[in-house]
Amino acid sequence: MLTLLKNACLHAPEPRGLCHLLIADGRLAAIVPTDDPDLPAGGPAVDVHDLEGRRVIPGLVDPLVHFIGGGGEGGFGTRTPELALDEALASGVTTLVGALGTDALTRTPANLLGKARELAAGGLTTYCYTGSYQLPPVTLTGSVAGDITFIPEFIGLGEVAISDHRGSQPSREELTRLAAETRTADMLAGKAGIVFIHTGDAPGGLEPLREVARHSAIPLAQFLPTHINRTAELFEDGLRFGREGGRLDFTTSTTPELLTDGEVPAARAVARALEARIDASRITLSTDANASLPRFDAEGRFAGLQPGRLASLFETLGECVTQHGMALDKAIGAASTHAAKALGLARKGRLRVGADADLLVLAEDAWAIDEVWAMGRRVYRA
Questions:
Q1: Domain enclosing residue 12, as ranges
Q2: Cα distance between residue 91 and residue 82, in whole Å
Q3: Residue 140's Cα: distance from chain center in Å?
Q4: Which residues make up the binding site for substrate (predicted)?
Q5: What secondary structure letter does DSSP report for 71?
Q6: Residue 199 host element (H or E)
Q7: Whole-angstrom Cα distance, residue 148 to residue 65?
Q8: Annotated binding residue at 227?
Q9: Mean pLDDT for each consecutive 10-residue tract of the chain (382 residues)?
Q10: Total structural domains in the chain?
Q11: Annotated catalytic residue within 288, 297, 329, 356
């Protein structure tokens, strides 16, 4: 069965105008302007949907989801739940990368891989990072290189924590060795080799990554540090890091308490980074969904938490457009295209012939999702 989506106002992310989209075998087989004389025709083997001029954008790509839950930093009663498939399908995120984070004792790489395959069976595209906050990394095969080389879903190392009291306080040598091991394994497996970094608010900020780049052949772009908008100080350090050639990932999940404590809202962070002339292709957004968003007092004691939300990525995309006047293609870049490129996912984050048919159909009169299509199948309809 072929699928024909007629009269789509396409943002691929660049605006393409009114088009017909032909889907075959989960991918885009043709994109034809509606005024083209060679229009695809319907027929008994074609499932036709008329989108009636509604906007169509690429499915969102989230480089950090704790889809088996997180937390526990205030005891077992504070563990956050797993991501539910129904919630994921309605969020607009069609590609998710899972991580362990703080807890690599009661949660394991095997749990993570199993959940990735559960979500994939529901229609989404899922990947994982091997390792966690702490060193040495927890793995399935016994090594970072083994996980990345032999397990298709494992595409990098993360979340390794720096400048955070919950991490292992890694030395420059440890970070360099792990980055080199990841880089080599990903070359062997044809993957991107990203080391995904949790950045805390302790003094030092992103300096550990600069130290690796200064004293080794590992480039700054090997790392994708997240939570760069958590504090005003870290955000300013991030802008310097971006000017030096590094990548910046802003977290969309937040709480009123975090904002009161000085967090820069993610949409504002993207707008300010673009105003600071940071290369747009180095700016990404992630949700930290189903992780704990903890608060600690001045002495580092746990003071409460809320879970991150997968829906916050689409909400932030809307804030970029409606509150900060950002062009839709620029905003889509931060929420989808740039993360796909950084993670080496060539068929994601962009709607073009040969790409996976992951797309969102937006509501006509509000910032909302009418339909989600993943790998050529409609998986959600409002």
A1: 2-57+350-381
A2: 15
A3: 23
A4: 71-73, 102, 133, 166, 230, 292
A5: B
A6: strand 194-199
A7: 18
A8: yes
A9: 94 97 96 80 82 98 96 84 97 98 92 98 98 95 97 96 93 96 96 96 95 96 97 97 97 93 96 97 97 79 86 98 97 98 97 98 96 98 96
A10: 2
A11: 288
